[in-house]
Write a structure and sequence with these properties.
Helix content: 25-40%
CATH superfamily of the largest domain: SPOUT methyltransferase, trefoil knot domain
Number of helices: 10
CATH architecture of the largest domain: 3-Layer(aba) Sandwich
Number of strands: 12
Largest sheet: 7 strands, parallel
Low-confidence stretches: none
CATH topology of the largest domain: Alpha/beta knot
Shape: elongated
């Protein structure tokens, strides 16, 4: 087991750089902060290169030390750990892991339920949608023109590690529309100006639910490309919901319709 106490250690500097999106994209590496999140990554067979462990914070809890080979474990001092971690109240575990880059062709499902997000901006919203997607049995999330790094630490935290268990693919709108047609998946775009209530549609078949941002909604191109446009009914005086709330409302209706018991 390697031991690092110095804040000036090059390894510490390299790990700290991964707090920035550019460094994560360039290296293909991410830091996973927290025992629960690391557990999710391991269960999803994410390749963990190293485990950064702080015994001063984690105490005698050595769960991962039994599941990761000793040469991959780095024990660091509390000041070092606090320098490289993301959480305000860390639990003493960080993992250095490789990112997964999936393609549309990696989405395989018999009766798919897909979420498509256009121009999602806030990591917290994306993380919340990922959690809901996992809970409702979504087969994949497709990001069009994404403004957020999938492995942003706030996405990982907000998703509680389920970002590693849900298939997430980045693709542009044209690629996505073409793929949906090839797979015979009907797209339902959510928009406040729609006439059809989401509960009136058959969401038990192969579908993709398309959502935009709270500020701008979906682009005109997506509204034109969608098979149907649906709405969540709202009282006068409000014209939008948080995108993660909208996703949850429609997904749970889809789950209700798909349940056989």
């Amino acid at each position: 087991m390697i031991l690092i106490n110095s804040l000036k250690n090059q390894k510490v500097k390299d790990l700290e750089k991964l707090k920035k999106t550019t460094a994560r994209r360039k290296s293909g590496l991410i830091l996973i902060d927290g025992k629960r999140e690391i557990e999710s990554a391991l269960e999803a067979q994410v390749e963990v290169n190293e485990l950064i462990y702080c015994s001063e914070i984690a105490g005698d809890n050595n769960y991962f030390l039994k599941n990761i080979s000793e040469e991959k474990i780095i024990n660091v001092s509390k000041p070092v750990f606090e320098k490289i971690c993301y959480k305000e109240k860390p639990d003493g575990y960080l993992a250095l892991a490789k990112t997964k880059d999936l393609k549309l062709s990696d989405i395989k499902a018999k009766n798919p339920l897909i979420i498509i997000l256009e121009a999602v901006e806030k990591p917290g919203n994306l993380g919340a949608i990922i959690r809901t997607a996992y809970a409702t049995g979504v087969d994949a999330i497709i990001l069009n023109d994404s403004q957020t790094d999938i492995y942003n630490p706030n996405v990982i935290r907000a998703s509680e590690g389920f970002v590693f268990k849900v298939k997430i693919v980045k693709a542009n709108r044209l690629e996505t529309v073409t793929w949906l047609k090839e797979q015979k998946i009907n797209s339902y775009a959510a928009a406040t100006g729609a006439k059809i209530n989401y509960t009136k549609e058959n969401l038990s078949k192969s579908i993709a639910i398309v959502l935009g941002t709270e500020a701008d909604g979906l682009s005109k191109d997506w509204l034109k490309a969608a098979d149907k446009i649906i709405k969540i009914p709202m009282k006068a005086g409000i014209d939008s919901l948080n995108v993660s709330v909208s996703a949850a409302i429609i997904l749970y209706e889809a789950l209700r319709q798909r349940q056989t018991d």
